[in-house]
Amino acid sequence: MEVHHHPHVPTHAKPWKEYLLEGLMIFVAVTLGYGAENIREHFIETKKAVVSAKNLYKDVLDDSVTYQQSLQNRDRQDALFEIISDLYEKKQLTQHIPELYAAHSYVSLRMLPIMNSLALDEIKSSGTLRFIEDDSLKTAIQLYAGRSNGLKLREQREFSYIDRMIDPITTTNFKYTFFREIGQGFKVVNKTIVINIPIPEHLNINKAESFDWENYFSILGMLKTIRKSTDESYIIPTQEDANKLLKRLRKYLIEHNALEE
User: Fold this and answer.
1) 143 three-state secondary structure
2) What span, in angstroms and rounded, lies between the C-alpha atoms of 189 and 155?
3) Domain assignment of residue 47, yes or no
4) What's residue 36's pLDDT?
5) How far apart are CA 35 and CA 28, in angstroms?
């Protein structure tokens, strides 16, 4: 005959202290697990923030160089305008038509820096900014990013002016072949334009007899004014913000042992 043994089921309740201890242990375990997960997530996101900061540092460093080069080129445009304007005031410009071609070819160029936005856009879209604990760096990033729209608006302003006012003069009054060649065929020495390519005989501008010189220099003068406004109100302040941001980024990357020289 088989004897069946039934499991022993306690009939008495646990002491309340045991329930409290079990509940406390469960709470501590859940809290530690949640905390560990938060620490792990924060570590991962901080590493992502450092990578994003490195990419931004490279972009802004390139931007800073571009702003300086752009300002130098735009200063050269102003200098060339002043040279031919002075010749015109002295009534000598018609004896310096090759120099006019050289100056006009450079003054009519569209030169305005464009901000690298790839790393900035990635930081903004990914939410990485909230994992950068340096508030001053966050502010510097936001200020710099805000400059982008201003540069784009000025680009539209300047380029639209060149499209409407300068390009029609170029296509109507300047001989295309020499105009194309002169772009890389001159230099400026002691406020004088020196041509270093062959000059065609009897070079002149098209429709010279009806060309309105006063209107021409008014148009170029207005372009210079527009460019000066862009330099002072947009490019230089953006360059200054870029340099401030570079200092903040450099400090942040050094603190995280991530700066690559």
Assistant:
1) helix
2) 30
3) yes
4) 44
5) 10
